[in-house]
Amino acid sequence: MESQEVKLLGFWVSPFVHRVEWALKLKGVPYEYIEEDIFNKSPLLLELNPVHKKVPVLVHNQKVLAESFVILEYIDENWKQCPLLPQDPYDRAKARFWAKFAEEKILSDGAWRAARAKGDNREKALGSTIEALEKIEGELKGKGKFFGGESIGYLDLALGWISYMLPVWEDVGSIKIMDPTRFPATAAWMSEFVNHPAVKDSLPPRDKMIIYFEKRLKELEI
Amino acid sequence: MADELVLLNVWPSPFGMRVRIALAEKGIHGYVTKEQDLVNKGALLLEMNPVHKLVPVLIHNGRPVCESLLIVQYIDEVWRNGYPLLPSDPSRRAKARFWADYIDKKMYGPGRQVWLATGEAQAAAKGELIGCLKVLEAELGDKPYFGGDSFGFVDVALIPFYRWFSVYEHFGNFSTVAECPKLVSWAHRCTTERDCFQVSS
């Protein structure tokens, strides 16, 4: 069997990197992890991802891949065990749709923005994040343990950051975003996710995340 | 049973055009286009795309698919015996998805700003847009199409914006052919060589 050399350039607290790691672990793909300091980018990172200069970057048998959702689909297509995306094209389109939605509305411009913002900006960001979470809650209702049913999949990996990073942001930003009484299906899913064998031992330590995000909050206040 | 296909669109939308091109490349012409009013949104659009309330939406046998690049991938996966829009090799597919994502993330926003903004904001957007077009041109290199010898996913993603180049040029006061001559040649190649451009205008 040909050697499957996989390297992953990452940053310890990046949710974009974590989702790639979970995918590799779920598929049982061994990889070499290379920690990058994103505040002091290495020549290797700049050479491998000159377009975005970001992690994660996956290198597989000299092929270089960037952008976490692109990498997830590559992993799924290259290693067929433990499929991440559903087989049916319509279900695949739906999973991709919700992953993109959550990325745009809850991650990038949502929860982290709300945690950092003050006054009216905070209210606005919080409002739109909660609106987006309501839609995700709707998608989870009656599904089972995970978005795809009993098995963890692409959409779970895409939204997984919510289960361990969102509580940290709520803490450092002194803001309540994920109310379990308002989002019971999401709260249950969060618990299933963080306890999944491919996830639970790979999460960064909470106290380390708190220190990191407290610092970032001061630097990025809006 | 014959497939029922309905496309919710507005005729100038470059995102809608991606879907029309994809369908044409697969030889699918028997679909209904329902032109939408985006100011007074109709019940069908709100029902089929309640999250974003935007076009395009492809309704296939009553089930809606939203987001243009997701629709193009859906079309490629459902009509997999037709013209392949994405390559079969996973790493080439990943490359195609990467560049289509780049177009949406990096080019669309600045392009819009060049058209809509003024002063410093417009100048900054112009710099970003030209930078982005040059990156795309470098990726194209000397290949006839982004995917190589065949028209594919990235070409489908970018070519609708060719119509917008003249808008960007007018408002941003620059010349695309001067800044990115290979990209302009690529656009001419697409619009003269692909059958789908002889049908839609």
Detailed description of the structure:
The complex is a heterodimer of chains A (about 220) and B (about 200). With about 220 residues, chain A is α+β, with helices and mostly antiparallel strands. Chain A is about 55% helix and about 10% strand. Chain A is built from eleven helices and four strands, in the order E-H-E-H-E-E-H-H-H-H-H-H-H-H-H. Chain A has helices spanning about 15-25, 45-50, 70-80, 90-115, 120-140, 155-160, 160-165, 165-175, 185-195, 195-200, 205-220; strands spanning about 5-10, 30-35, 55-60, 65. Chain A has a four-stranded mixed sheet with strand order 2-1-3-4, covered by helices on one side. In chain A, a hairpin with a 2-residue loop joins strand 3 and strand 4 (about 65). In chain A, helix 1 runs parallel beside helix 3 (about 70-80), helix 5 (about 120-140) packs across helix 9 (about 185-195) and helix 8 crosses helix 11 (about 205-220). Chain A is globular. The termini of chain A are far apart. The mean pLDDT of chain A is about 95. Chain B has about 200 residues and is of the alpha+beta class. Chain B has ten helices and four strands; from the N terminus they run E-H-E-H-E-E-H-H-H-H-H-H-H-H. In chain B, strands 2-1-3-4 form a four-stranded mixed sheet, covered by helices on one side. Chain B is globular, with a radius of gyration of 17 Å. The interface of A and B includes residues 65, 73, 77, 92 and 135 of A.
